[in-house]
Write a structure and sequence with these properties.
The structure holds three protein chains of three kinds.
Chain A: H1 2-21, H2 25-45, H3 49-74, H4 78-87, H5 94-113, E1 118-119, H6 126-133, H7 138-159
Chain B: H1 7-22, H2 28-55, E1 62-69, E2 79-85, H3 86-109, H4 116-135, H5 139-157, H6 164-195, H7 200-210, H8 216-232, H9 241-244, H10 250-259, H11 264-271, H12 273-277, H13 280-303, H14 307-327, H15 331-358, H16 376-390, H17 397-411, H18 417-442, H19 456-471, H20 486-491, H21 504-532, H22 537-540, H23 544-554, H24 559-577, H25 584-602, H26 609-629
Antiparallel strand pairs in B: 1-2
Helix pairs in contact in B: 1-2, 1-4, 2-3, 2-4, 3-4, 3-10, 3-15, 3-19, 4-5, 5-6, 5-10, 6-8, 8-11, 8-13, 10-15, 13-14, 13-18, 13-23, 14-15, 14-17, 14-18, 15-16, 15-17, 15-19, 16-18, 16-19, 17-18, 17-21, 18-21
Chain C: E1 4-5, H1 6-26, H2 30-55, H3 59-89
Helix pairs in contact in C: 1-2, 2-3
Classes of the chains: A mainly alpha, B mainly alpha, C mainly alpha.
Chain lengths: 163, 630, 102
């Protein structure tokens, strides 16, 4: 299982890097799905099978499909790839990468200076998750419900054609 | 009867509001009826109330009518209340009766003028405010009237506002009197903080209990009130506004700048006489101010060409006499002179107004001449007024009042030879300039053309005032002419008696003869100079020295020039220096710095989402760095 | 099951988050920016799950579900905005959609 974890981690990192470097949106989306699937496997190795399933169904499934819908609706062709190439200058990478590296370095420092801990990998059953969700986090669930409703109404309103 | 007291100032006030609101749409007859009628009713009421007061006086010779509490803040609660005693009876009578006659006169005098209703509205407001001033039972109400008459004075001096010079004269009067009013306000503050009340009677009672004679507070309070009085009454050093105030219509000069408002200072000092008794140095100052003013303005009156300016300077001079009387403690003499002065000076101004109107708005005396036969009514009444002003012995009211002042200037314990001598020289000069004016105006050859003769409503006030100017003095005869002094006795219920040496009848007769001789000497000199030789003012001013002296007197002893250099020029200089607002530079500096910072910060707001995101990331990095490494 | 040091899981989350941040800052195409945000959200969720499984507690997973719901709502609104923006400006470049004069 350890091997699986590191392997999927590598896949996740590589595919995510590819997501942000692609010029074609559909390619980026495909890499994104790979990245999400890799993370789903990691969830499984960490003993969260239910979350792994959700990652595949909701993230890699529903949300990515939304992206694809939009890309299809906009009907972006080769023209947009050319445009991307134009606006994505190599020099633009320097600043963000520096920022991200510094931030990552801070993460590393924080994590590595702590006491080493290890994950047991014993699965936390979906029943436990559900029980916690509908007892301790009941209020959170309701808030999330409202958020989703707001998102629904907002998306409906914004999605109307401009007059 | 006394309960009607509140109506006396209220009726003119109501008429003021009426004329102010709808006056422009009323026909002139209605306006005149309201304007003069309201003051007439007020005068009638005042007469009835005064008659009641004299025949059946209220207890302690004082009556107070409290209408309502004006302001109630802590222990400061001045009432709207009117106080009637012998002093305010005299003031009220003079204000309403003379006021009514002048209103009557104005009906015809102002008929051709624009703003007929405006004129009567202001005049009514003035009468109302003047009555509030003399009747107010506390100093706050008195101050309301004080400022109210100042406002009316401003409005009426600038009545013909289309000429900028009149506006300037009005502003000058307003600003100069404001100096005195500020002093008076400070005086009120001082009295309130020290005595805890502004009710006049309470102040007088408490002051004599709380303050020793000559104590600092008494001196300061009296000095500050004197400041207000010299401002309002155009005494040294704040006298410069009155000659310029002649820019207003003649009835205004008669009512406000001769008969009533300018004597408010006299009233104030007489009203608060105990404060001045408690402050001997200030009382001496009152006498000195009066003496100096009467002399200075007398000399100035000698040189004027404008008939109204002669009268203006003579007014300043006569009020100087009143101040002198107040200063030596002869309060009744001051009020007596106030009354006779109100009669004859109103008469003289109204007469001058009639002449000016007939002469097609000509003010220069040297362009009049020979009016004796053409305007007989005006002439005879003017002569009566002039006789009173010059204090012609026995037959004029001015003689009795002025003689009283001269006598007390000598015999009072706070008087003295110097004050008496100054007053005597003043009497001589008064005779000289008064009859200089009369001879130049009425005798000699005719130089101007008379447009129209004054009508009935102008003549009646002149005749009534002329009669008063002659008989007004008989209410108070000196000891030497039999003991008949109802006026002084009446006033003594409100004002203290003079603290005088007993000098005997012989001395008094001698002094009266000297005073009479001074006045008659002045008249005789005027006769010699202006009637027999009929010299022109240009001849007087011939030669370098004489010309310089002439100009010096003509300009009112250069006080305008002096104040121009001491106050106006430096003020203008500061204003010029400060044109860019020096202090404001601090604030514009703050504004410039904030604008610079704003421009700096604005760079970060470029509308590019990615830059904002980078900012968030940077913030996160820094926050984490602080949390982790510190 | 396997014994994986918790640090490695967290580091993976950190690395993914940093990559997402880089993408967000570099790309001017709004669709890529939304994708980058998804990456970052996913990384955050991963961190929660890692921590949750360290303690064998369900709370981490619950948090992941909240993040998931939030990401869904965000994407729905965000993509609606993308459509509007494309209709209005005929471009997906966020910089050219800026109308402020900075």
């Amino acid at each position: 299982m350890t091997v699986v974890f590191y392997l999927s981690a590598a896949v996740a990192i590589i595919s995510t890097v590819l997501v942000i470097t692609r010029l074609h949106a559909v390619h980026a989306l495909l890499y994104m799905i790979i990245s999400l699937l890799a993370v789903a496997i990691i969830f499984y190795t960490l003993g969260a099978p239910f979350i792994a399933a959700l990652e595949v169904i909701v993230y890699a499934g529903a949300i990515m499909v939304l992206f694809i819908f939009v890309i299809m609706m906009l009907n972006l062709g080769h023209k947009s790839v050319e445009q991307e190439r134009l606006i994505l200058r190599p020099a633009d990478w320097i600043g963000p990468v520096v920022l991200a590296v510094v931030l990552g370095a801070e993460f590393f420092y924080m994590v590595l200076t702590g006491t080493p801990q290890s994950v047991t990998g014993n699965p936390v059953e979906p029943q436990a998750v559900g029980a916690s969700l509908y007892s301790t986090y009941l209020l959170g669930v309701e808030l999330v419900g409202m958020l989703l409703l707001a998102g629904l109404v907002g998306a409906y309103h914004l999605g109307k054609k401009l007059k | 009867m006394y309960s009607l007291l509140w109506l006396v100032p209220t009726i003119p006030l109501v008429s003021f509001f009426l004329l102010m609101l709808v006056g422009a749409r009323l026909p002139k007859k209605t306006i005149a009826a309201f304007g003069a009628g309201s003051v007439g009713i007020s005068a009638l009421l005042a007469l009835v109330i005064s008659f009641t007061f004299m025949t059946s006086p209220p207890p302690q010779h004082a009556y107070t009518q409290v209408l309502w509490t004006w302001i109630g803040v802590g222990n400061f609660s001045p009432d709207i209340a009117f106080h009637l005693d012998a002093l305010s009876v005299v003031m009220m009578l003079v204000v309403t009766v003379v006021g009514f006659l002048i209103h009557l006169y104005s009906i015809e005098f102002m008929r051709e003028e624009e703003g007929y209703s405006r004129f009567f509205a202001y005049m009514n407001l003035f009468v109302s405010m003047m009555l509030v001033l003399v009747l107010g039972s506390n100093l706050v109400l008195l101050y309301l009237g004080w400022e109210g008459v100042g406002l009316c004075s401003y409005l009426l001096i600038g009545f013909w506002y289309k000429d900028p010079a009149n506006g300037r004269a009005a502003r000058k009067a307003f600003v100069v009197t404001r100096v005195g009013d500020a002093a008076m306000a400070l005086g009120l503050f001082l009295l309130f903080t020290q005595l805890g009340t502004l009710n006049i009677q309470a102040i007088l009672e408490k002051a004599s209990l709380q303050w020793a004679t000559g104590s600092t507070y008494a001196t300061a309070a009296a000095a500050l009130l004197l400041g207000g009085a010299v401002g309002k009454s155009a005494q040294l050093p704040l006298q410069t506004w009155l000659p310029d105030a002649m820019a207003g219509p003649s009835p205004v000069s008669a009512l406000i700048h001769a008969a009533t408002m300018v004597t408010a200072g006299v009233y104030l000092i007489a009203r608060t006489n105990i404060l001045f008794t408690l402050a001997p140095p200030v009382q001496l100052l009152v006498a000195v101010v009066g003496a100096a003013t009467l002399l200075i303005s007398g000399f100035s009156a000698l040189t004027q060409r404008d008939i109204k300016r002669v009268l203006a300077y003579s007014t300043i001079s006569q009020i100087g006499y009143m101040f002198l009387a107040l200063g030596v403690g002869a309060y009744t003499a001051a009020i007596f002179h106030f009354m006779t002065h109100a009669f004859f000076k109103a008469l003289l101004f109204l007469g001058a107004g009639a002449i000016i109107m007939s002469m097609h708005h000509e003010h220069d005396m040297f362009k009049m001449g020979g009016l004796k036969d053409k305007m007989p009514v005006t002439f005879w009444t003017f002569l009566a007024g002039s006789a009173a002003l010059a204090a012609v012995p026995l037959i004029s009211a001015g003689f009795y009042s002025k003689d009283m002042i001269l006598w007390y200037a000598w015999s009072s314990k706070s008087g003295g030879a110097v004050l008496w001598l100054v007053a005597l020289i003043g009497a001589f000069i008064t005779g000289l300039y008064t009859f200089r004016m009369v001879f130049i105006t009425f005798w000699g050859e005719t130089k101007g053309h008379i447009d129209k003769l004054p009508g009935k409503t102008i003549k009646i006030p002149l005749i009534v005032l002329g009669a008063l100017a002659i008989i007004g003095g008989f209410v108070d005869m000196p000891h030497t002419l039999g003991h008949f002094a109802p006026f002084s006795e009446f006033l003594h219920s409100a004002l203290p008696e003079v603290n005088a040496f007993e000098l005997g009848l012989g001395t008094e007769v001698l002094f009266q003869l000297i005073a009479a001789a001074a006045a008659l000497g002045g008249i005789y000199l005027a006769y010699q100079l202006y009637l027999k030789k009929a010299i022109h003012s240009r001849e007087v001013s011939r030669g370098a020295v004489r010309g310089a002296v002439y100009r010096f007197f003509f300009s009112g002893w250069g006080f305008d020039w002096l104040y121009d250099w001491i106050f106006v020029k430096p003020f203008l200089w500061i204003a010029r220096v400060n044109k860019g607002d020096v202090v404001d530079a601090i604030y514009t500096g703050i504004a410039a710095v904030s604008r610079g910072l704003h421009n700096l910060v604005r760079r970060s707001q470029d509308g590019k989402v990615r830059v904002y995101a980078a900012g968030i990331a940077l913030g996160a990095i820094i926050t984490i760095a602080i949390a982790v490494f510190l | 099951m396997a014994n994986i040091p918790m640090e490695h899981g967290l580091l993976l989350a950190g690395v993914l988050f940093s990559i997402g941040l880089t993408g967000l800052l570099v790309r001017r195409n709004i669709i890529f920016m939304l994708l980058s945000i998804e990456v970052m959200l996913n990384a955050a969720g991963l961190a929660f799950v890692v921590a949750g499984s360290r303690w064998g507690a369900p709370d981490g997973q619950v948090m992941f579900m909240f993040i998931l719901a939030m990401a869904a709502a965000e994407v729905a609104v965000g993509l609606a905005l993308v459509l509007q923006m494309y209709q209005k400006y005929k471009t997906l470049d966020v910089d050219s959609a800026s109308k402020m004069r900075g």
